[in-house]
Amino acid sequence: MRPSLCLGGLLLFASVACHESQTPFQIAKDRVAANDTAGAMVVLKSALAAQTIDLDGELMLAELQRRAGDASGAIMALRATIERHPNDPRSLVMLGRVYGESGQRAMALDALQQARAKGAPDNLVALDLGTALAQSERLDEARAEFERARKAGLDAHVVDYNLGLLDVQSGAAAEAVRHFEASHAGKSDWAPARRELARALLLHSPQDKQVAERALDLLVEKLELFKEDWRAQEAIGDAWMVVGDLDAAEQAYVEALRAGQNPKSVEERYRVAKLRQQERDQASK
Q1: Which of 171, 204, 237 is the last residue of a domain?
Q2: Most buried residue, 28, 66, 68, 151, by most Cβ within 10 Å?
Q3: Residue 234: left if φ>0, alpha if ψ -120 to 50, beta else—which one?
Q4: What is the pLDDT of residues 34-51, one digit of tens each?
């Protein structure tokens, strides 16, 4: 439920003062800044093998592995880091995030709860812990964590987005619309908020043409953001169905099928659109 942290922010890493001789962490940071991620990983792996790496370097290496799609490598590295630095909660937060992204939800929740027990501040752990709790159907606890994230100063549009997802999960469509409206207002060009606001509007008022037109405005106005987003394309198809443009709906569902590798929900919608087209064509003969 949370967007990935950008390496530019590196919120998990403490800043390191410049010294006359750079540490491996500093050298790796410079290489990341120069878009040389592979070179940064070489520096950090060499330092790890030589036992000249500090905690920040270990965390950066795990983050780079995570970003490269090497979840197992990141998990192994983080477990080793936790053994070497048992009292620092940052590695547990990152471990929980990697577990969560890998679908290991129970392991993610356990790691994040350990991080909280070790004193991880809310601005570091609350959003991830809320996500893990939501995935475990512990919705009230998840909501409390998202509100803790807000009080800790995390971006309001991100917090509102996560609360909206929680509303959808709990079946509160009107509340979902309210939270996604707030998220969209906070950052109007953020694709996830646009998509989920459109989907929540259609969920809350599934047969309202004006609502469907608003959903289309949200998605089609920034269509370049959603070319490979099957859920957004599915919502576009749903909105066109309400408006009554079956050809446009079919085309949107085709795009959703392509981008999502034939998700079942889209297959069903596509069949409905084709059936209505056939009925329309028969009626016009």
Answers
A1: 204
A2: 28
A3: alpha
A4: 999 999 999 999 998 999
Q: Which two tokens stand for residue 157?
A: 């549009």
**Which residue type sits at 239?**
A
Query: In whole angstroms, what is the distance from residue 249 CA to residue 237 CA?
Result: 4
Q: Which of 154, 160, 158 is nearest to 125 (CA)?
A: 154
Angle among Cα 43, 48, 54 to the nearest 5 degrees reads 90
Q: What is the domain range of residue 35?
A: 19-98
Look at residue 57 and tell me if it is in a domain: yes
Query: 76, 71, 27: which is closest to 47 by C-alpha?
Result: 27
Residue 83 near residue 73 (C-beta atoms within 8 A): no
pLDDT at 220: 95
DSSP 3-33: PPPPTTT-TTS------SS--HHHHHHHHHH
Assigned domain for 47 exists: yes
pTM reported for the whole predicted model? 0.84
Beta strands in the chain (DSSP E): none
What DSSP letter does each residue of 148-206 carry, written as one string?
Answer: HHHHTT--HHHHHHHHHHHHHHHT-HHHHHHHHHHHHHH-TT-HHHHHHHHHHHHHHST
Q: In the structure encoding, which two tokens stand for residue 116, read together?
A: 């909280």
In angstroms, what CA-CA distances link 210 with 49, 193, 202, 205? Answer: 62, 20, 10, 9
CA separation for the pair 162, 142 (Å, rounded): 10
**Tokens of residue 54, six digits:** 């500090």
